[in-house]
Amino acid sequence: MIDYYQPVEINIVSAQDLDSINLLFRPTVYVSVSVTRGSRDKQVTPAAVCEKKLLRWNHRMKFYIEDDKIQRNESVFVFQIKVKKFYGSTEVVGKLFDCRLGAWGIIKDVPSAPCEDDIYA
Asked: Which residues belong to any copy of the C2 domain (predicted)?
C-alpha cells in the first residue's frame, strides 16, 4: 500500500505571560513541535527574542503528514515550550496539544500551562 502525505505548514509566532520563565536573565526559550500520528518528524524553533513578557519566534515549519491520518483526524500536534538552563538541562514549561489539522492557519499565541495541566485546543 502506498502512503500519501500532505504538507502542513505552521508558523510559531509568539507566547506571552509565561510566569515560570524569568525573562530578566534572557533565557534560551524554544518550541519543540511534533505530530503524534502520521509523521515521524520533530522540529524545533530557534531561540526566542525576549521582550518584557513576550517571547517572539516567527518561525515557519512544514510537516508532511499521512493523508489518511488527516482525513480521520487522528494526528495531533504537540507543542512544548522549553527553556535551556545554564547548566545544560532543559525544562518543559508549557505544552499544547492541537487536534485541528483541517483548520490550520497561523498560530498567533501559543498558550502555556504547567505540564500537569495539558491544554487541548
From this structure: 8-95
Instruction: Name the DSSP letter for residue 12.
Output: E
**Contact between 78 and 37 (Cβ < 8 Å):** no
Q: Is 59 a residue whose pLDDT tops 90?
A: yes
Cα separation, 105 vs 102, in Å, equals 9
Parse the chain into domains and list their residue ranges. Answer: 5-98
| Distance of alpha carbon 57 from the chain centroid | 11
Superfamily of domain 5-98: C2 domain (2.60.40.150)
What are the two backbone dihedrals, phi and then psi, of residue 69, each rounded to the nearest 5 degrees?
-70, -35
CA nearest neighbour of 83 among 106, 112, 52, 61 = 112
Q: How far apart are CA 69 and CA 34, in angstroms?
A: 15
Q: Rounded to 5 degrees, what are φ and ψ at 24?
A: -60, -35
pTM: predicted TM-score of the whole model, two decimal places = 0.73
Q: Which long-range contacts (CB under 8 A, 24 or more apart) does 85-88 make?
A: 85/27
